[in-house]
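Researcher: Go.
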Amino acid sequence: MPSMLSEKHAALAIKILALLLAAALSFFVAATKLPESNFVKGSLESVEDSSNTVMKFSAATLATSLAISALPDDFATPLADSLADMNTYFVAILVVLFLEKILIQYGIKAAFTILVPLACLVGILFIATKRDILKSLAIRLCVLGLAVAFVVPCSTHITNIVASDLTAYVNDTIEETEDGSEKLNEAMDGSTEDKTIFEKLSDLFQTAVHGIADLMRHFQNTIRRCMNSIAILILTNCLMPLLTFFVLKWILGELFQIVIPMPPIRSTGRRRRPGPEAGPKPDSQLVSIGEKTP
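Model: Structure:
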């Protein structure tokens, strides 16, 4: 009997020491080494590149909007307003990218210095108290820490692999928008007064721009490409990290097999009255046939 108790205590001590070692490795090794790895640095560079792309795109649409609004007779003012309104989406995308940058810079350290060691501490309390709620809490803290640490780096690398063609489309749209604003500004330059603005635009765009309709069609196509590019930016920079978070959380949850303890169900119904099958009544309650009660 004493040997069995000693083996049980030794197993518990090994589990506690393993959790303490995991907490120490998380705090002193993972929290310092992982942010310096090429995997995380590459993810941070990808987020920086995306931020620069969005700001460049915003500047291109604003420049084109100003150039269009400067055309005579204000016939293209609605197009200029449409391009200017796109900056609302750019601001929202930049906010998401800024949050992703914060998660990369500080989320990994917070996960491995706070969440994972805290999960190990709760696991030790579970070993000491054998309360299932502490086990569930420890696993949830560990899953949350790993998800916070790896969601953005994984999403950026997945995006770079899957959406390379979409990124090229966005860059082509930015170049086309910038080129259009430069040609508009050059066409409105007064250095050559012998040509109309449409003749200048026809020469600059190397296409037939004979009137308002041709110019409107050109910039309507530019707006369509800009809207498609904005949708691509929202997909790659906003939806992909969110989707990666849920997928990674699901994978970790399946890996750790989280079981949520349910409280016992208490019966609130009324007690059933005894029926005839409950047995004979006591003799004191039986009244024979024909006997009168006093």
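Model: Residues 9-260 form one domain.
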